[in-house]
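Cross-check.
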Amino acid sequence: MFWKNRLNGDMKLFLVFSTLLPLVSSQDMPYEHFLTQLQGCPKECRCPPSFPRVVYCDNRNLKQIPEIPPYTWYLYLQNNQIEALSEQALRNATELRWLNLNHNKITDQGMEEGALKALSSLIHLQMEENLLTTIPSPLPTSLEQLRLSRNKISKIPPGVFSGMDHLALLDLQGNKLGDEAVTEQNLKGLGGLVQVNLAKNNLKTMPLGLPASTIQLYLDSNDIDSIPPEYFKDLPKMAFLRLNFNKLGNGGLPKNIFNISSILDLQLSHNQLTEVPLFPLSLEHLHLDHNKIKSVNGTEICPVPIGTIDESVNECRPRLSYLRLDGNEIKPPISWDLMVCFRLLRAIVI
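Predicted model, tokenized:
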């Protein structure tokens, strides 16, 4: 039963986060729409007849968005010199589902307030590597993925995510967000969030206000030195947690902080730990490389007393299969009790 549930969960994640290529051919639209698309293709862009709902305007050194034909679903404008997204820029393309504006020069001043308002079918919005200092508003409530990494964002306006229950992925890595920006009030409305990436920001504390639906949380390369007791109490689905390159020491980790029955992958590399933290039976991958750990005692870190492990009962057997300990002060050989406890271990890196 465990493996069946686990497989279903993994499949759902795959469906949410896999990058899909456009699968809409000319046979999926009325002929008159097909002609309108081909005739309306901007001269600066490429519109493949076999996929008429796709418009490629990437890598064209464009400074403004050309007039886009009305039945476009996928619009690629990445790697240009676009500085503004006006309310009129996409006035015809109200059926857009996927908009890629990565690696342009769009500023807050260049984002007109109603620029995205009419895009009621938009599912994926990518505006990575621009010059934004705040999250654009208002956003279409239809969004499922919002990627704003590598901008200069330091503010999350209160209410910007209001009604965005469909948003599953929020990528804000590589910005300038501090603790005052990532609050429960500012994140209110994200009832369906699955993955949030806040790596490479200016956080000193764990982000507050994450919804109970959160499964993947990435906080690498911040300045976090502690995790509040019971932080994960309201995050019952947490499965993938990354806190690499922070300032976590033993004193910043309450004894049973990682006692989360759902957790599968825990990454604490490049911190200041001197001991292996306790973790639950469910954990499969543990990254503790480049800390200050001197020894590993299998009896102390085993989630259950070693003598009580029943190999015939999966639910009572530690599932750790990958353990990384290189970059510490540990010298081989590994103690035998570690192997006795974690019999599913397939790789140990020292």
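Residues 1-21 have pLDDT under 50 and may be disordered. The radius of gyration is 24 Å. Passed to J.P. for a second look.
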